[in-house]
Structure formats: C-alpha cells, structure tokens
Amino acid sequence: MDIEGARESNWEFRVEHKDIFVYSAKIRDSHILGFKGVVEFPVSLRRLISLFHDTGNYIRWVHQLSSIEVLEKGENLEYVIYQAINTPWPFPKREMVVRTGLDTEGDNGIAVTMKSDPDYIPVRSGNYRIRETYGRWVFEPKEDDVVRITFIMYVDPGNDIPPPMSNTAMFEVPFYTLQGLRNLACDRAYNPPYPEEVDEYISIGEG
C-alpha cells in the first residue's frame, strides 16, 4: 500500500474544529488508519515553501515533535530527514527517517512527498524506529490569495502500541499540526528565507 492508494481511498469525515477538517481511511493489510487533514487560510505558496524548508522551526508546529535533523540534501529538492516523536509513557519515543521531495500538483498546486527509509541510519539508543510511513502535503491556491492545505499520512507506530490507541491518537496529529502550521504561517514576526533553488525546478509566483 502506498500513498497513491491512500489518496484514492474512501475518506470518512471524522471531525471539524476551528475550520480544520479531519478524515480517516482504512489502509489495506493494516489495522492502523490513514488520516487526512484539510484547512484553508490566506497565505502565499512561497511562504509555505519557505516554512517547509525551515526545518529548524518544525518543532514549533509539528505535533509532538521532539527533534529533527536533516541527514542528507540531495538533488531535485530531495531530503533525508530524521525525526523523533514524543510518545506517551510507557512506550519508547518513536523515531523515523523519511525521504522528502517537492513536486507539482494539478494545474497550479505544489506537493511535498514523504516516504520512510527505515534502514538509512542505525536506531538511536532508547528509541523505537518506525518502519512504515508515507505522506503527502498538497498546497492548492484558491481565490482571494487563499491556499487549501491537505495533509495526508499513514504511520504504523509499531506492534507494541494497540491499534485502537494508535488510531485514537492519530486524530490529534492532523489537527494540532495544521493548527500549528497556520499559526506560524500567519505570524508576521516569523520570516523564513525562501530557498531560491526551488525556482530551478518549480515556478512559484511572488506573493
């Protein structure tokens, strides 16, 4: 099962709060649900791309993120990123290594892709390595300088966490992450630099 399958799944609406919509979908051969969060607010694509390249500030908006490290910066806007995620006691902290990329989406949208690479580096002491995760962020410009942001992700946190507990906790991820993203993107005191190398691959208008 890959992210394309998740994107085509029959998403079930679960909750709306503070203009953030959360959906879930069954993933073939898994007891863990995939999730999707959707929000719209006024922001430019360039600012969103700048925010996503500012990995040092991810801890300000990614839900339960403990630490993050860029392990490799490759060609074609591809990165290998290590993340450690806080986990409720008594479970060990989760960590994952993901490969990310930047691509076009539809007529005028942008997508950030994520896929696990669990054997890229050894597991760090005391942590549990997530072996299967994939996701996709989609930024779609709408009217009046509004962008629709869709966050799709599937994470299998491991067999030691019961699926019902995992699925309940997963609904927090899209809501709090999108809320944090919106708050930071709308904070005019926050001005991340725009990565000029993006323009070598994708045309993004000023704004």
From TrEMBL:
> Which InterPro entries did the record assign?
START-like_dom_sf, START_dom_prot, START_lipid-bd_dom, START_lipid_transfer
What molecular function does GO assign, one term?
Answer: lipid binding
Location of the START domain: 1-170
Listed under GO cellular component are: cytoplasm
Name of the molecule in the record: START domain-containing protein
Source organism (scientific name)? Prosthecochloris marina
